[in-house]
Amino acid sequence: MLAGKTERRPRGELARVLVVDDEADIRELLDLTLARMGLSADCAGSVTEARLLLGQQRYQLCLTDMRLPDGEGLEIVRLIGERYGETPVAVITAFGSTQNAVAALKAGAFDYLAKPVALEQLRSLIKSALSLPRRRAGVLGDEPVDLAAQLIGPSAAIAHVRDMIDKLARTQAPVYISGESGTGKELAARLIHDQSARRAAPFVPVNCGAIPEHLMESEFFGYRKGAFTGADSDREGFFQAAHGGTLFLDELADLPLPMQVKLLRAIQEKKIRKVGSTVEEAVDVRIISATHRLLGDCVDAGTFRQDLYYRVNVIELKMPPLREREEDVEPLVEALLVRICGAHPPRLEAQALAALKAYSFPGNVRELENILERATALCNNATVNLDDLRLAPEKAASGSVGREDETLDDYINRVERQAILDALAKTAFNRTAAARLLGVTFRSLRYRIERLGIEE
């Protein structure tokens, strides 16, 4: 199909695609591929032609080159995002031009392809883009979409999170979810997956801090029979388990540097090699990562690779702490009590509710749930009072966390330091035994000891 030629979509045809590329052979390749998939295409050779076609026809997908004679593909990405938000856009970029790809994803592109275009990847991308749920319909398949039922509260902070999740679900871009422990990072990752084109495939959560260092490569990439002692059969890893879906890497900052190198290559090449294998296999996964630490600080400290940081942190989603969402506490309490107790939960006295609203929640929503579980077990006459909450007075005081003028970070560091010192004292400073007592990995304990300046 020639550049600029327009054909109207016949009634009953499933989808129509806009192809924008200044190279005639690329346009022809894309047009033929789409035709064999039962799709129609209009082709444009410039930004100007693409603008004209977008004004004449509604498209279910746009494939655009990054470099065009009269502008950049990013102009098309932004135009469609502003005026035709239902249409996903995938960009085609020169091989190895990761900077362009990242810029396109941040601008709202669904995904990107590197030249020379691999037909298998192209077909997979097209199928994924066309299976995106319709925003206006408000449904995913046959199931209603209700982010407000999952991320509860009227605050502006949580409303922004819901809006971001809705946008992130319509792209394949890697997402980095930041926030304190207990703010709901894994829940946000699951919601992104459940609303995305990958929702029918697996969501595989991985706690990077819970895997022994010597097992990391085999756990992530799998292994072949006979690769090492005890490998009596082939086994798939996390990447293979998440094929077609989403791999959620929680506590990403806990990965040791050698494993970070292997993870970076897997993300860049979209290929992995099992331990003991001589061949690579292609994997199709979306990476969503999270950590309660500041990943940028880890880069500055030399414990996290900068190139991996830029790969996983294409778009950041910040989960707000509960202490910044006071107006969300009451609806959260109501929802959590129903979850804990069923249809007829106990009532919370006004004084108890006021204390919760004034509480700083260093453990965030997870801590609120634990408090309510304990309180419902202790309460009498189906009423939860202030004493049932068992809140420490200094924590419940508005404006402070622990000691006078102590910040939240100071308080958490003090409690963590004391817990580690107690565990070390009980184990005669045997760090392996102390880590086991605390329920953390040896590597995690070693990092915490160094960060807190604990000396034997």
Structure, explained:
The protein has 456 residues and is of the alpha/beta class. It has four domains: 16-131, Response regulator (Rossmann fold); 174-225 and 236-318, P-loop containing nucleotide triphosphate hydrolases (Rossmann fold); 322-394, Helicase, Ruva Protein, domain 3; 408-452, Arc Repressor Mutant, subunit A, CATH 1.10.10. Helices cover 45% and strands 14% of the residues. It is built from 21 helices and 18 strands. The protein has helices at residues 24-36, 47-56, 73-83, 98-107, 119-130, 147-150, 156-168, 185-194, 216-221, 238-241, 257-269, 295-301, 306-312, 326-341, 350-358, 364-378, 386-389, 393-396, 408-426, 431-438, 442-452, and strands spanning 16-20, 40-44, 61-65, 67-68, 71-72, 89-93, 111-114, 139-140, 143-144, 175-178, 203-207, 246-250, 271-272, 281-282, 286-291, 315-318, 347-348, 383-384. The strands form six sheets. The protein has a five-stranded parallel sheet, sandwiched between helices. A five-stranded parallel sheet has the order 11-12-15-10-16. It has a two-stranded antiparallel ribbon with strand order 4-5. Helix 14 crosses helix 15 and helix 19 (408-426) crosses helix 20 (431-438). The chain is globular and about 75 Å long. This is Transcriptional regulatory protein ZraR.
